[in-house]
Amino acid sequence: MEAKIFFGSTEATKEHLSQRRSPYNGEVVSTAPICDASDATKALQIAQAAAKFTKASTLAQRCNWLLDVAKKLKEHKEDIAKTITDEVGKPIAFARIEVERCIETITLSAETMRTMHGETINTDAMNSGKKTLAFFRREPAGVVVAITPFNFPLNLVAHKLGPALVAGNAVVLKPTPEAPLCAYKFAKLFIESEYAIPDALSVVYGDAEVGSALITSDIARVVSFTGSVPVGNIITKNAGIKKVGLELGGNAATFIEKSADLALAATKCALGAFVNSGQVCISLQRIYVDAEIYDEFAELMAAATKTLKVGSPYDDETFMGPLIDDEACTRAMQWVESAIEEGAIPLLLPRLEGRTFYPCVMANVRDDMAIVCEEVFAPIVSLVKVDGFDDAAHRMNNSPYGLQFSLFTNDVKLMNRAIDELDAGGIVINDMPTLRFDIQPYGGVKLSGVGREGPRFAIEEMTEIKSIVIC
């Protein structure tokens, strides 16, 4: 159960340890070292020394490194999946899917880097220019700090480690405190690989003290963070002059237009709202429904939700397990109760057993209710009656968040309007806004973040362009 710390290639256990208890049954499932700012500084210094070796390494070695990790992940798939379930309560079927996605992300990072290149520039294209041999190429930024959340404790780490390392950087990873053993096991595959570049990856656990030491250091050249808006705001104000990539909160919405396949839309919306217990940045939270079909869709949505199995995350058939902690449960229940007091109507009554918050579908909500205007990060979805697309688009865009939206319709012209008019980093047509492919550019606008993930796009964020002219 013990998760150790990696200072580069050196494995160590600190004197003071913290315990991680299962959000499902409260059993101790792992322990992790308690780190401080001095540990963060040590890891950064090791990464700084290693960065010159990662930069000098061949692309073949780095690609082979990642592919070797992907191979080892396949061999340890069930163990890693169970660790995810143990530490964050994700249903085992979805934990296995996360491992599969992680394997794809790591593999794709290697494949993408093989084909990324610079290009030549025609410097005689301008009257002020002249003929030269001019080109640019991409070089590693140096040291990347990666800070990751609990909801995808493996694949979101992969989205940072894969692009950063294959591009030739050294990395200091601060994983979520909720899943220390998952991060340790993943990092161990990198560090013990026969293709590993010594000291290129360090892992430090910790709280705000450790995070602050990492992001404010002049050693770090890139900070890649996935998490909350308040923390993202702190990073932005304190990071200094370096690249900062932020994948922050969301308040995903969809519009159900009257020409849509309502049964399909209801099924997809139930999945998008309640997968991972709503603990996804792009969890469907707001469903805007054309007034003409509102009642019919509400019935279908409630029925689709009732088919989802809630229970033990260790059961292969379970769709939804527990929330991450007691605080999340309390907040979710308070928001639902507050909305009901203000006039909202639950189509499925709010129900909490231990840390398992059963899926809740709310109707008769207003735009100023917390369950509509804030990110709930819980299995709560709200149905809002609207007068067509213009009304829906205005309400969807009237949010400080803009990560992903979707639209259900068979009207091609409306699809094109939605793509143009909805203000978000991603638009999905005829599926849930919770849909994400790891190959795509992923990120938001407004408070939802800065920069894009997805291997190709993350590599661009984690490299610098060097321009060369030979006269």
Given as residue ranges, the uncertain stretches (5+ residues, pLDDT < 50) are none
Give the percentage of residues in beta strands: 15-25%
Rounded average pLDDT: 97
**Text of the CATH class of the largest domain:** Alpha Beta
- Taking the alpha carbons of the first and last residues, their distance comes to 61 Å
Put the structure in a nutshell.
Helix content is 40%, strand content 22%.
Description:
- The chain has 471 residues and is α/β, with parallel strands linked by helices.
- The chain folds into two domains: 5-248 and 448-470, Aldehyde Dehydrogenase, Chain A, domain 1; 252-438, Aldehyde Dehydrogenase, Chain A, domain 2 (3-Layer(aba) Sandwich).
- It has 15 helices and 24 strands.
- The protein has a seven-stranded mixed β-sheet with strand order 14-17-18-13-12-20-21, with helices on both faces.
- Strand 17, helix 12 (370-373) and strand 18 (380-386) form a beta-alpha-beta unit.
- It is globular, with a radius of gyration of 23 Å.
Q: How do the helices and strands line up, and which of them pair or pack?
A:
Elements: E1 5-7, E2 10-12, E3 17-21, E4 28-33, H1 37-56, H2 59-75, H3 77-88, H4 92-115, E5 119-121, E6 133-140, E7 143-147, H5 155-166, E8 170-174, H6 180-191, E9 201-203, H7 208-216, E10 222-226, H8 229-238, E11 243-247, E12 252-256, H9 262-274, E13 284-290, H10 294-306, H11 326-341, E14 345-346, E15 352-353, E16 356-357, E17 360-363, H12 370-373, E18 380-386, H13 388-397, E19 401-402, E20 404-408, H14 412-421, E21 426-429, E22 445-446, E23 449-450, H15 455-461, E24 463-470
Parallel strand pairs: 7-8, 7-10, 8-9, 10-11, 12-13, 12-20, 13-18, 17-18, 20-21
Antiparallel strand pairs: 1-2, 3-4, 5-6, 6-24, 11-23, 14-17, 15-16, 19-22
Helix pairs in contact: 1-7, 2-4, 3-4, 3-6, 4-5, 5-15, 9-10
